[in-house]
Design goal:
single chain; 126 residues; alpha+beta; 3-stranded antiparallel sheet; two-stranded antiparallel sheet; 5 helices; 14% strand; ArsR-like_HTH
Length: 126
């Protein structure tokens, strides 16, 4: 289901691939980890300290981020050091922050996507 442009050499991502990529960014824990890694490569215990997430939670989300190709790891002695795989990811997160400056009120008011932090969805039966 890949779209191919006229010259047949360039393959564009499909809507499904884009959606799958954004699902990788859609979890607050993964975003916290990515934000921490934007400052530079870190080992798991450093990510735990910077994000206030548990070590098992960080390890689980790092596995997901590795599988998705958003982070990479390098051996550093007995530890694995994790880093953002592409500078474009850091740029994307920065662009998202800039976009939120424009659309934050609409995002906050949106009843379709609620965080799991005690917010209840609107009553649509009325």
């Amino acid at each position: 289901m890949t779209q191919i442009v006229a010259d047949r050499n360039i393959v564009l991502p499909t809507i499904e691939q884009r959606a799958k990529l954004f699902r990788g960014f859609a979890d607050p824990s993964r975003l916290a980890i990515l934000e921490a890694l934007c400052e530079g490569p870190l080992v798991v215990h450093e990510i735990v300290r910077r994000t206030d997430l548990s070590q098992p939670n960080v390890s689980n989300h790092l596995r997901c981020l590795l599988d998705c190709g958003l982070v990479a790891s390098d051996r550093d002695g007995r530890f694995m050091r994790y880093r953002i795989k592409s500078p474009r990811i850091t740029s994307l997160l920065s662009d998202v922050d800039a976009l939120l400056e424009v659309v934050a009120e609409g995002v906050k008011a949106c009843g379709n996507y609620r965080s799991n932090q005690g917010e209840t969805p609107p009553d649509r039966t009325k």
